[in-house]
Inverse folding.
């Protein structure tokens, strides 16, 4: 049996040769996962021998990681906004920059909004994090993919909350109006998808492909969202690294108020916020025949 430190070093070298970013950190996560301990606990166990059965499991995980399978898929979960979310091939991997979007949204509301819609919810990480922060809000999670909704339902169950789930192509099956609509829509130009990293290519193409310029679905969203917003309601979007300003300009052209961008932690203006114009007509009715929150 080999000592833990030797295994950690050799595994990190293996991943580094295969151009895996943060190879040492990846290896630490995989080793801690196999041993059933915290990553930081490894530093207290460097002299321990690792059983051969665990080494066999680790070798298989290393092989898959070296071939570009995302670390989060191998671990089976990812932490997001202080909660653990199951992560697999059914939806985008929850990413740290999106945590910043949730934090910014929470800061914009002195009191919890009554009705919230998370469009293109994927794993549910945005909508479910907001639902945990605002337990009295009515939160709806919508997605065109039934696979993604199944994953979001699983995550909701693990978090002990029961939002409503709706399968819908954008607003096709959405009724009523909202005080907040948030979305992380597909925004990668079609031609760029073959150039993405092996890890990102494991995400569903449906969740990546934003059309020729990357903004086809975003523009549909901005137009179709207007009738579903209460007066002064907020929309919040995550877009591509160079799309913030064009999307904010599109918001203004459509009549949204106070359209502006906000940066993620590295300073990239990938978040767009805008306020709905004052509503002159009655709010859209809510369809009481929609499935129950447990559906």
């Amino acid at each position: 049996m080999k000592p833990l430190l030797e295994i950690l070093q050799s595994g990190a070298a293996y991943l580094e040769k295969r151009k895996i970013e943060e190879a040492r950190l990846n290896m630490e996560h995989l080793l801690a996962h196999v041993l059933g301990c915290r990553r930081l606990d490894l530093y207290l166990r460097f002299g321990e021998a690792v059983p051969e059965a665990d080494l066999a499991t680790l070798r298989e995980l290393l092989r898959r990681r070296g071939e570009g399978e995302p670390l989060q898929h191998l671990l089976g979960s990812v932490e997001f906004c202080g909660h653990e979310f199951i992560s697999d091939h059914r939806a985008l991997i929850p990413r740290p920059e999106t945590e910043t979007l949730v934090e910014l949204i929470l800061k914009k509301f002195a009191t919890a909004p009554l009705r919230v819609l998370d469009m293109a919810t994927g794993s549910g990480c945005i909508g479910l994090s907001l639902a945990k922060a605002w337990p009295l809000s009515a939160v709806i999670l919508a997605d065109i993919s039934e696979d993604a909704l199944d994953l979001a339902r699983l995550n909701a169950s693990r978090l002990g909350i029961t939002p409503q789930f709706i399968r819908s192509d954008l607003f096709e099956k959405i009724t009523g109006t909202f005080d907040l609509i948030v979305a992380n829509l597909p925004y990668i130009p079609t031609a760029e998808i073959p150039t993405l990293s092996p890890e990102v290519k494991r995400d569903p193409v449906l969740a990546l492909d934003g059309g020729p310029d990357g903004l086809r679905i975003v523009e549909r969203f901005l137009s179709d969202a207007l009738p579903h917003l209460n007066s002064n309601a907020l929309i919040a979007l995550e877009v591509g690294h160079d799309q913030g300003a064009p999307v904010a300009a599109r918001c203004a052209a459509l009549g949204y108020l106070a359209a502006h961008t906000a940066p993620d932690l590295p300073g990239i203006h990938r978040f767009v916020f805008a306020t709905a114009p004052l509503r002159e007509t009655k709010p859209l009715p809510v369809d009481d025949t929609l499935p129950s929150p447990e559906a």
